[in-house]
Amino acid sequence: MSDPERSAEGRVVTLCGSTRFEAEFAAVNRRLTLEGCVVLAPGMFSLPDLPGDGEADEAGLRERLGRVHLQKIRMADEVFIVDPGGYVGESTRREIAYAESLGKPVRYLSREQAPRDHAGPPG
Q1: Deepest in the core among 3, 83, 122, 123, taking most CB within 10 A?
Q2: How far apart are CA 6 and CA 107, in angstroms?
Q3: Is 25 helix (H, G, I), strand (E, B) or coil?
Q4: Three-state SS across the chain?
């Protein structure tokens, strides 16, 4: 019988991290989806051009997107931090603290990546 803590099938996972890592988000999303997870990710990686004086509109949009992302964290069984090289910015640190305050397990990409140069010879 499989361990329910280790089974990915049907688990809801929210991805968090800097949106500068769009390619890494896509790779993690694909991997987790293939494992059977339901993946919730940022809906966009850059803000759209806003008409007129977009500064106030941009602030409002950022705030709304932030609230949506916190809802995705609330919906998750776990949170997965996309942190190539261990980079975690201020907003991601807030999201981690929020997830932990809700008792959500938090995993990190940087802690799961095995160094490639330590691989032994083919056996």
Answers
A1: 83
A2: 13
A3: helix
A4: CCCCCCCCCCCEEEEEECHHHHHHHHHHHHHHHHCCCEEECCCCCCCCCCCCCHHHHHHHHHHHHHHHHHHHHHHCCEEEEECHHHCCCHHHHHHHHHHHHCCCCEEEHHHHCCCHHHCCCCC
Where do the domains of the chain lie? 18-36+73-113
**Do 23 and 88 contact (CB within 8 A), yes or no?**
no
Q: Answer whether 73's CB lies under 8 Å from 98's CB.
A: yes
- Give the contacts of 87 (CB within 8 A, at least 6 positions apart): 18, 21
Q: What is the pLDDT of residues 31-62, one digit of tens each?
A: 999 999 999 999 888 877 666 556 667 788 88
**Residue partners of 91: CB distance under 8 A and separation at least 6:** 66
| φ/ψ (deg, to 5) at 53 | -80, 90
Residue with tokens 């977009």: 54
In terms of pTM, does the model score above 0.70?
yes
